[in-house]
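Q: Protein A?
A:
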Amino acid sequence: MKYDVVILTQEKYIAPNEPDWYSKQVIKEDALIVKALEEQNLKAIKKDWADPNFDWNDTKSVLFRTTWDYFDRFEEFKSWLNAIRHKTRLINSFELIEWNFDKKYLLDLQTKGIPIVDTHIIQQGSTMTLLDLQKSLNWPKMVLKPTVSGAGRHTYLIDTENISQHESVLAELLQNEDMMLQPFIENIKVHGEVSHIVIGGEYSHAILKLAQEGEFRVQDDFGGTTHLYAPSNEEKELAIAIVEACPTLPAYARVDLMWNDKMELILGEIELIEPELWFRNYPNASTQLAEFVKKNYF
């Protein structure tokens, strides 16, 4: 085979003519993991997952990193994934990716004792209205989003003043996909959300994400900012416990924790497919991942 590991990205991060600041960071992070793998004597290259000219039989494994267009091309991505799983080894595994696609996994983790943000699933085709759901759930403020989503896609903050404006939005989305409601956690506006990075079951580092004034989403797509963060032992232990509760051990995971209104730690999501890992802030983490890949996959 030509390669040991192909680092998966999307076309816009391969060789942009005029990369913006964020694209430069993505390219830098991908380069860090390529270098770290090469230092483990593994032949690595970066490729667009949708590259029609690449033969996936030419690599022993693929490492999912910055495939951030997959949720906008979900059916295409699933078809590609089902094809390459028989040609090469996936890191993380197909089992984990398939489980992590849909945020119903939160309910799986809850049955294992993991504290999560309360989550109510609205099945595709349902005719329930937001008003009916709000009365039933008794959540004055709610966050509505698809169960399969990323980067804040179709994520809305619902309250008593704007609920009627989103009824048609929900009805339209339910024609094509499952949706979910969660109570809005007010503390996120004050304390933000912390992304805890766990590599090979071992705690690595953390990043604090804060929403900009007047916004509730912490993603940088919506003006959110990131900051270095020193986690407590309680946070580290919960992040590791969440990773250990996954169907199998992930090579890497981003565990997003926040504090509820009682200042109790709860899980917002665990990202196992293409999480941002902030190697640019913690370059040694790329070495940690490369060492785990070499030891466990080669």
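Q: Protein B?
A:
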Amino acid sequence: MMKYKRILLKLSGESLMGAKQYGIDENRLADYAKQIKEIAATGIQVAIVIGGGNIFRGLSGAAKGFDRVKGDQMGMLATVINSLALSSALENENVAVQVFTATNMAPIGRLYAKPEAVEALNQGKVAIVSGGTGNPFFTTDTASVLRAVELEADVMLKGTRVDGIYTADPEKDKSATKFDTITYAEIYKRGLKIMDLTATTLAQDNHLPIIVFDMDTAGNLKKVLADEKIGTLVHN
């Protein structure tokens, strides 16, 4: 379990919907909290970035007539809502947690800065970093890679509803095959869309390994950190 000392866990906002069509499924939230508690109890330092697509997505808002900047700001606020919900679920599991926000939103959360976030991690707290990068036109995937690099995480874990990276969308193409490992160069060559190009390039340039796995299956987070063959490892 101690292969990694510090991780950055990226959670999908859409996954928080669970069986619902919108918002937060309390059962899915509670399951995530239990899985995070399980790994935090081993001494692994856990930082988290969570998306906001279950509430509002800036790009889709722009397509409906919202100003893109305002739409992205609304999306950032959605990530804060999800982060507060997750922090509450973790506290219900008696896990120490600190919510940080990319822009000043006291008393909702503490303004993000690397020294304060590292201090929280060293104190054994789960650090949830919300609000994206604090700027429009950047996805939460980019924010996740940025925070992982800043916080010197050993690995970024991208929790999705799919159990790894495939040659094509497995939900649309039944012949798609899964990669156990894949390089960033191969991702570019094949045109695979695991993240936006900004996030992918930032991860590649900083030699950040990423494991894409199915977070919605209970116990998978622990299996990934136990180095079981779960998901797909992306590396240089």
